[in-house]
Amino acid sequence: MNVSIRRARLDDVDFLVELVTHEDVEPFLAAVRPKDAESVRGEVERSEAEPDAFGVFVVEVDGRRAGTMHFERANQRSRIADLGGLAIHPDFRGGRAADEAARLFERHLIHDLGFHRVQLEVYGFNERALRHAERSGFTREGVRRKAYWRNGEWVDGVLYGLVAEDLDGDS
Q1: Cβ distance 162 to 117 under 8 Å?
Q2: Which domain holds residue 28?
Q3: Over the stretch 53-102, which tens digit does the pLDDT of each residue have?
Q4: Closest to 33 in 3D by CA, of 24, 22, 21, 45
Q5: β pairing state of 153-163 and 139-150
Q6: pTM score, two decimals?
Q7: How far apart are CA 65 and CA 106, in angstroms?
Q8: How far apart are alpha carbons 110 and 162 in whole angstroms?
């Protein structure tokens, strides 16, 4: 299995919309993520226009579109990026494509774009994402108790971080 990542293009919009609205994907994504073609197109255009501050990426497995993830610069002076929206199509789950994509993305953000810290927040009920964050080298840093109203109940947000030193020895 060959996993790669690349910046999304306009011809990826239909795939991205189908992915983020898939019944096995949508419940686990942030409620505020764009899910219509016009909004997703706007994010892809912003990713092209602001490559050091914002990015929508496509995960490919053996040359086929399999998922997405994005980042946004949270703090320029301290070189912090917020990660989000990692979603792998159910057809590609189980082979650790998400783990390899996350490793590639972490290294791109730190080694290529110069971020010092990357951070993310996961819904506390999303056991798959919690395990994935830890397998991908993130350190669990805290819990925002009952931070989000989702599907008629309050849910926790679990905070994770990874700093450049965590990747020491990488090339």
Answers
A1: yes
A2: 3-167
A3: 999 999 999 999 999 999 999 999 999 999 987 899 999 988 889 999 99
A4: 21
A5: antiparallel
A6: 0.91
A7: 19
A8: 10
Overall number of domains in the chain: 1
How many residues does the structure list for the chain? Answer: 171
CA dihedral 12, 16, 17, 20 (to 10 degrees): 180
Digit-coded pLDDT (tens) for 146-157:
999 988 999 999
Which amino acid type is present at position 99?
D
If you search the block for the tokens 């964050």, which residue do you land on?
133
Rounded Cα distance, 70 and 85, in Å: 6
CATH label of the domain that carries residue 145? 3.40.630.30
- Which residue has 């994005």 as its token pair? 70
Q: Which amino acid is at 116?
A: H
